[in-house]
Amino acid sequence: MMKIVNVSKQRKLLINKILKVSFVALVLLILYLPIIYIMVQSFNSDGTGTHFQSFTFKWYKEMFFDSDLMRAIRTTWSIAIISTLLSTVLGTLFAIGINSLNKKRRKQMILLNNIPVINADIVTGVFLMLVFQILGRFIGFEYPLGYFTMLIAHIFFGIPYVVLSVLPKLNEINPNLYDAALDLGSTPTDALRKVIIPSIASGIMAGMLLAFTMSIDDFVISYFTTGSGVSNFSIWLYANRRAIRFNTWPKAYAYNTIISIGTLTILIVYNIIKYRKNKKKGFSDF
Questions:
Q1: Which pick of 104, 109, 147, 168 has the fewest CB atoms within 10 Å?
Q2: What would the pLDDT profile of 191-228 be if each residue is shown by its tens digit?
Q3: Residue among 143, 150, 127 nearest 226 (CA)
């Protein structure tokens, strides 16, 4: 009788294990199948993508000779980098300011900060477009939309994500740390730069990466806040969505493959460095 019960338990454990592994495999397949498909198509000589004809690197070569695509890529990266740096600095300062308020005011400011995050992108994009057009008429620009309006828009929606990443780290540090640094002779700037900033560095880094991720693949807000002749990669792809016969999409596949491989390489290198540091730290502690 005991053997039958043990066999039954083992079968249940085996079935549960198979179901868990199958579920995880299904989720990973759904997540990574589009990326794998894009990578495969970037090496496919058939530009239509209906079947795999032969292995080639020509789309990577043609990508660099497509002036419109390269212009869109440069715009994408320049706006992403500049907006990320500015939104990180401003968001960190805003978070420090919000954290210094009393409890009631802090809740009010956090609520205001969360509105752009939960708001629909199309609402934010249309709102910013109208604001830029109204301000442009007051300044004297008939067509104010362009590179700088897109950059301002990316800074606008990047700041709240930095604030949300930095605030939890500010809540973890000792609230008297800043005052202690002042009592020991530090100036307010030195106390902020040498004491507070290093204590919340991980939150700043997380906010910076989040702002960069939101900026580099944004379409809706960028579409409503840019002018003619200024396109990031997502807008360029949308404008050429029907141009398969001109071999446009394979070049986009090549660019996306470079981004995916680059991101994977950075993650692998980062984890290797982190593992080696933890290993050395473990040996030193021992």
A1: 104
A2: 888 888 988 999 999 999 999 999 998 999 999 999 88
A3: 150
Distance CA 8, CA 18 (A): 15
Label residue 241 exposed, middle or buried (CB < 10 Å: 0-12, 13-18, 19+).
exposed
**Residue 198 burial (CB count, 10 A):** 10
Tell if the pTM clears 0.70, that is, is over it.
yes
Q: What's the CA angle centered on 251, arms 59 and 227, to 5 degrees?
A: 150
- Pick from 133, 94, 91, 101: nearest CA to 227: 133
Q: Compute the chain's Rg from CA coordinates.
A: 25
- Token pair for 84: 């990320």
How many C-beta atoms surround the C-beta of residue 56 within 10 A?
A: 14
Bridge partner list, 246: none
Angle at 227 between CA 225 and CA 233, to 5 degrees: 80
Domain annotation for the chain: domains and CATH numbers: 67-259 (1.10.3720.10)
Cα 224 from Cα 275, distance rounded (Å): 44
Interacting residues of 56 by C-beta distance below 8 A, sequence separation 6+: 43, 44, 45
Q: Quick check: 221 and 125 in contact, CB under 8 A?
A: yes
**Cα(57)–Cα(76) distance, rounded to whole angstroms?**
24
Structure tokens at 178: 């800043």
- Vertex 99: Cα angle to 93 and 103 (nearest 5): 150
pLDDT tens readout for residues 116-141: 889 889 999 999 999 999 888 888 77
Of 86, 127, 117, the C-alpha closest to 212 is 86
